[in-house]
Amino acid sequence: MQSIPIVLAAADMVLAREVRRPDNPAGPPICGSGIVLTDSLLDRLKTLGIQTLTVEGHPVTLQGEKGLDELLQELDRRFCKVADDPLMAKLKDIYKKRLHESWGDDGR
User: Is domain 2-55 classified as CATH 3.40.50.620?
Assistant: First the structure.
């Protein structure tokens, strides 16, 4: 899941978190998670003053943000000194799986 500025959101992206009004964050949600965005819905959300959305996967690469391959290489680098430790290998696998999930990649 990724939090992105609404101006970078596009039709067919799926909301990962519900959207609430910025002037009443404790109020009822405007849209629930799992909703597929459309152009008209995006226009309405912009009109309501929504600035950011959290969408499923990782559809947008923001300036200065590391890509999945770079993050996986960094993970390998961080765990290289403890590669022979089975517990640390399991921990690395958990982090690796989470990275793939957060980027909307099945890990294959």
Answer: no
